[in-house]
Design a protein that fits this description.
The chain contains seven helices and eleven strands. It starts with a helix and ends with a helix. The N terminus is likely disordered.
């Protein structure tokens, strides 16, 4: 009987000690801590490295897949769409040596900007409000980054991948391409892909501000025109991870003697400006390191002019 009582006491003590441990103590060996990663209960794709923290609520994730094999998950790009505001918050995607193959030309068709088949009924306006507004259909995931096939390029023309942009800002204004902030940023990031090794991956997330006071106007009192645009990129290579961010005023004025380095931020600064938690699926230690680097060091490391 004494032996049974002793065993019971030892078992009880073990249970008390186990229950009293801090949650971090139970972290499996070899797995790095990540307190802010996305849940995959609704969207399995939310675990991908290019994904920011999903907002939830009225916002949904649109996942555009293709039959091409350049991506292990068959994903072309993803969009966070706000059903209440009927606007996209960001598009995100991956770039590799393989995905960068230029097998198809830019899509030209009718309609030029199709409605997104993944979008639920009632989550968008009945007509394309860009036309006649004075604003371009501004690609967020660029056509030029998705020319692996006709299908991958076609999907970039969905209206859910568009934000209203001034033509000068977007780069479509005749003779002003070198003074276009968005186009120069796109060209810079696209130029990096040609330097990637077979094991490297570039994770990209871009968008325009649609929350709080960061709205320039509404087209016909409906479609949001962002006041600011942003771009974030995370590079994984043999040396580890590094990240860069850009923040732009959405202006209709050409930028003479444009220096892209002027608009560089670190990821933490961009998170403060946008309220978006970028690259949340990195482990906490790595995330803290890559997000808080001095922008001057980022400019040097990425070779931004």
């Amino acid at each position: 009987m004494k032996l049974l009582k002793s065993l019971f006491t030892i078992t009880l003590l073990l249970l008390i000690v186990s229950c009293g441990k801090d949650e971090s103590d139970s972290q499996p060996s070899g797995i790095k801590k990540n307190d802010n990663k996305n849940s995959t209960s609704i969207y399995p794709e939310a675990s991908r490295m290019e994904m920011p923290k999903l907002k939830g609520g009225q916002s949904i994730l649109l996942v555009h897949k293709t039959n091409d094999k350049y991506d292990p998950d068959g994903i072309n790009y993803c969009v966070e769409w706000d059903k209440e505001k009927k606007s996209q918050r960001w598009s995100c995607y991956q770039m590799t040596q393989n995905s960068n193959k230029q097998n198809a030309n830019r899509y030209y068709g009718n309609p030029q900007y199709p409605f997104d088949p993944e979008l639920p009924s009632g989550a968008y306006f009945d007509t394309d409000l860009f036309y006649g507004s004075g604003f371009d259909h501004g690609h967020i995931c660029p056509s030029n980054d998705r020319r692996f096939s006709e299908q991958t390029n076609y999907q970039t023309f969905y209206l859910t991948n568009m934000q209203p942009q001034y033509s000068v800002f977007n780069g479509s204004a005749d003779g002003l391409q070198n003074q276009s902030l968005w186009l120069q940023m796109e060209n810079f990031i696209h130029g990096l892909v040609g330097k990637l090794r077979t094991t490297d991956t570039l994770y990209v997330c871009r968008g325009g501000t649609i929350d709080n006071d960061n709205i320039l106007m509404r087209i016909k009192d409906q479609l949001i025109v962002p006041k600011y645009f942003f771009s974030a990129a995370l590079l994984k290579n043999s040396l580890g991870y590094k990240a860069i961010a850009f923040w732009f005023d959405h202006s209709n004025t050409p930028v003479e003697n444009l220096k892209l380095s002027t608009y560089v931020k670190n990821i933490r600064q961009l998170e403060t400006l946008t309220g978006i938690d970028f690259f949340c699926n990195l482990d906490d230690e790595t995330e803290e390191h890559v997000e808080t680097l001095d922008p001057k060091n980022i400019i040097t490391s990425w070779g931004v002019k």
